[in-house]
Amino acid sequence: MHQKEEKALCARVVEVEKQRDAAAQEALKNVEVMKKGCHGIASSFSFPFVFKFAFLLTCLLLLGLALRVEKQKLLEGIEEMKTLVRTSHNKAEEVITRAEEELAFAKLIRRGADRDLV
Q: Which of 39, 45, 64, 66 is most buried (CB neighbours < 10 A)?
């Protein structure tokens, strides 16, 4: 059961990484589209450098915000995975403790049966 949970966590990590990569790719595509769309507009202004700089700054700010949101989502996913791992570890420790107790009890029963035979 512990291995299934571990595999599920690994699959979740891969899924979150794919989502992050897809979001970054989409953001870059959007920046390129906006850049191409505004290239002609920017050259018609009398201050093309200022406009391009302002546009680039806006794009960078939007990209930074998008990356910050994705980072927050990833951190939440990591915390969720850590919690799942801790829970799995605690359950495994409970099972081990219970098995050790049952083994000790079985040994006591066996000793009692051995004494009865003597």
A: 66
